[in-house]
Amino acid sequence: MADGHYTDGIAAGRLKGEDYQRNFADLHPPLDAHEAAVEADRCYFCYDAPCMTACPTSIDIPLFIRQIATGNPLGSAKTIFDQNILGGMCARVCPTETLCEEACVREAAEGKPVQIGRLQRYATDTAMAAGRQFHERAEATGRTVAVVGAGPAGLACAHRLALHGHSVTIYEARDKSGGLNEYGIAAYKTPGGFAQAEVDYVRAVGGISIEHGRALGKNLSLGELVGDHDAVFLGMGLAGVNALNAEGEDAEGVENAVDYIAGLRQAEDLSGLPVGRRVVVIGGGMTAIDAAIQARLLGAEEVTICYRRGREQMNASAFEQELAASKGVTIRHWLQPKRVLAENGRVRGIELEYTALSNGRLTGTGETLTLKADQVFKAIGQSFMAGVLNGNSASVALEGGRIRVDGEGRTSMSKVWAGGDCIAGGDDLTVSAVAQGRDAAESINRALMG
Questions:
Q1: Tens of pLDDT along 416-449?
Q2: Can 144-239+384-449 and 243-381 be said to share one CATH topology?
Q3: Can you name the CATH fold of 243-381?
Q4: Longest CA span, the chain
Q5: pLDDT digits (tens, 9 = 90+) for 115-157
Q6: With CB atoms counted within 10 Å of each terminal CB, which end of the chain scores lower, N or C?
Q7: Is 393:386 a contact under the CB 8 Å cutoff?
Q8: Chain centroid offset of residue 217 CA
Q9: Strands across the sheet with 346-358, in order?
Q10: How far apart are CA 154 and CA 146, in angstroms?
Q11: Per CATH, which fold does 144-239+384-449 belong to?
């Protein structure tokens, strides 16, 4: 192990230089042309294909796979991009094991589905590498639309609106576009700057401008946008991080997993990122899994995920849980945080309480467990910051702490639509955000054009 600068168990440079490159290499290497053809040949090309029904963006999966099988990857890419302009990213990060591939007939018959995600990546990568665009922008309508957030929902909405000839301005709070795709996805799932390449591909259609450093509630107001544009789409995601509600959680070494992952994604030198020897992650979703695995890949010796319910209730898929285990992460269930243990203000451990179901409700048993830890990550969900609506929250109705929308993405406020993680009922999936942004754009277009 390389020498590092050690401070109370948290240090950078725990590994040799080449170890970082190997650890953060592409999780699923791309298929070559021969591998793609062989895999495509496994598809039954089902009529009324269950895989297509399981796809939130309703991509014609049998068609795009048949096009690969017949040596037409560009035609395949068009089939994908017609429904999902962020098909390249979704091919990398979609939980296909619980969506299209779980519904695959071969999964039911033999437990080995067609690798739909990797085939989708093969087609979309082929088209993007060739710089092929399949959509031509319509004649300019003179209408302008503001899109808040350059994440999956905002980009999908902007692209579809631009196709219809509208001029779109995306207002993005961060320095880079991409949202969750740029800042929130594990680095080993999207290496090589793919998120930015995809943003460039989306914008190549024309009619889309992006202003960075513009955030609702800071230097932008919803009222201003409604007054200056013919329509507004809200796709700013979730900015709040839920608290542990545990004593001592303000100790140094307790961090938001979301922020840590974002810092890792933007780091030019992974060897400069500090990580604890013993890391505890609180949560049971994809963020918890991503934080835990990447802590291990950075050189943490012991990484434990603690989740308050059982394995079956974890939001992270069985595949992701198994991936974490394969990287040396320990997952413990039926535990909730009670107290962060600290010395001189720095984390030294965490006390957890065992939980159980009583009459259908989760309760603490009173029995506790203490784990040593140099670093504790909070990954127990994010919340929508309604205050950013700048005094217009009375007009934009909320439901369950997020924006309420109808079946077309309309909010309760005239001229305002919303989609992605910020809306009520969202499932926090990139592919669902893309579908919501795309469909809201169609609704906006109908409203603008009459």
A1: 999 999 999 878 899 999 999 999 999 999 999 9
A2: yes
A3: FAD/NAD(P)-binding domain (3.50.50)
A4: 67
A5: 999 999 999 999 999 999 999 999 999 999 999 999 999 999 9
A6: C
A7: yes
A8: 24
A9: 335-343, 346-358, 361-372
A10: 10
A11: FAD/NAD(P)-binding domain (3.50.50)
